[in-house]
UniProtKB/TrEMBL annotation:
Residues 20-228 form the Radical SAM core domain. One of its GO terms (molecular function) is transferase activity. It comes from Dongia sedimenti. It comes from the Bacteria. Pfam families: DUF3463 (PF11946), Radical_SAM (PF04055). The gene is hpnH. Its cofactor is [4Fe-4S] cluster. This is Adenosyl-hopene transferase HpnH.
Length: 384
């Protein structure tokens, strides 16, 4: 199974409980970014473009575990940057497992075989290896040759060692549906436990802004891909059937960014994993003080083309709880890849984009320098 039964039951029970308690907004997956530094320079990612002062920052073990506790989400996706560069990551993972969180450790796999011995197979732990297609497509996406082959070897080694292993892939404009379907066949033949897939979205700091998909292209691309796999039933996805149905244009969903809150070296990121337009010091502050209605498709220009899992998987899960028969039908019959698409959200009332990200970076650097000066002062006083 792409999602183990234990995890499906725990997460399902958690979501049902939130609905019975009448909670409109609740977290489902904590997106934990313990660092931004990476050993690749992918064209579709802007993480490594931060100044060194920020790239050198790390979330401590204590802060990472506290973030999971104050958030309370049953699932933690550890991303970055490249998380395996964090020297204390094994302790973070161990602590999260003690909290009984289901962990997906996202990695480009360049360090996976070297670091694998620091982790133990567990029903709470899954390696999530980044692959954006077959060899040529993936190596082009990450701007380095040989990465695909390294990742495949690491996947095989992880499976041989008894670990659960998924792949996570992002498709961009120009993706060939036939090659994408063949890629899914290839990774299933490797023995991976599941596939996480998402359309490329215009991350505002990414060097390459030309190959992100708009909503129309996203829907047609996923219809063309899933249609080559019996509506997606041919492959194991670690995502809800209704999210895949949404990608193929069969559902009209609003974004629920609070379902996937992000904690990184800046704090709790507003409003979501992709847009950094402010930061809260605590999860409570994030949930209560963020102007959620200012964001999302139809509300904000930057969100107009987004169909990414971090914004809409939570929506799909909530819809499955409200309409279980619909979810069951799509799961059994597969995603519809022909016929009229669901109406899209109108954009005529969305507010204009604001470009405020640089101010947050400048403020973070000022804080880092102030903390360093305060620490230096304490050391000088102690020496005297």
């Amino acid at each position: 199974m792409a999602v183990p039964l234990q995890q499906a039951v725990r997460v399902g029970s958690y979501v049902v409980k939130q609905h019975l308690m009448g909670r409109k907004r609740y977290p489902l997956v904590l997106m934990l970014e313990p660092l931004f530094r990476c050993n690749l320079a992918c064209a579709g990612c802007g993480k490594i473009d931060y100044p060194d002062e920020i790239l050198n920052q790390r979330i401590s073990v204590a802060d990472a575990l506290h973030a999971a506790e104050e958030c309370g989400a049953p699932v933690v996706s550890i991303a970055g940057g490249e998380p395996l560069l964090h020297k204390e990551l094994p302790q973070i993972v161990e602590g999260l497992i003690k909290q009984k969180r289901f962990i997906y450790l996202c990695t480009n796999a360049l360090l996976l075989e070297k670091k694998m011995h620091l982790y133990k197979p567990s029903p709470y732990f899954t390696w999530s290896v980044h692959l954006d297609g077959s060899k040529d497509e993936h190596d082009k996406s990450v701007c380095q040759t040989g990465v695909y082959e390294k990742a495949v070897e690491a996947i095989k080694a992880a499976k041989a060692a008894g670990f659960r292993c998924n792949i996570n892939c992002t498709f961009f404009d120009g993706t060939d549906p036939e090659r994408a379907a063949s890629f899914f066949d290839d990774v299933m033949a490797m023995g991976v436990d599941g596939i996480t897939v998402s359309p490329g979205y215009s991350y505002e700091r990414a060097p390459d802004q030309q190959h992100f998909l708009n909503r129309g292209k996203t829907k047609q691309l996923f219809r063309d891909i899933l249609g080559r796999g019996n509506g997606g039933k041919k492959w194991e996805f670690s995502q809800s059937s209704l999210f895949l149905d949404f990608l193929a244009g069969n559902q009209t969903y609003h974004c629920t960014p609070w379902a996937n809150p992000t904690r990184n070296v800046f704090g709790w990121q507003r409003p979501c994993y992709l847009l950094g337009e402010g930061y809260a010091k605590t999860f409570k502050e994030l949930m209560e003080d963020t102007k959620w209605d200012d964001y999302g498709v139809g509300n904000y220009e930057k969100c107009a083309d987004c169909m990414v899992h971090s914004g809409f998987e939570g929506t799909a899960v909530a819809d499955a709880i409200k309409h279980p028969l619909k979810a069951l039908r799509v799961s059994r019959q597969g995603v519809a890849v022909t016929g009229a698409m669901a109406p899209d959200i109108p954009l005529d009332k969305q507010r204009k984009a604001e470009y405020v990200f640089s101010r947050h970076v400048e403020k973070a650097i000022e804080d880092i320098h102030a903390q360093k000066e305060a620490l230096d002062k304490q050391r000088r006083s102690a020496a005297e």
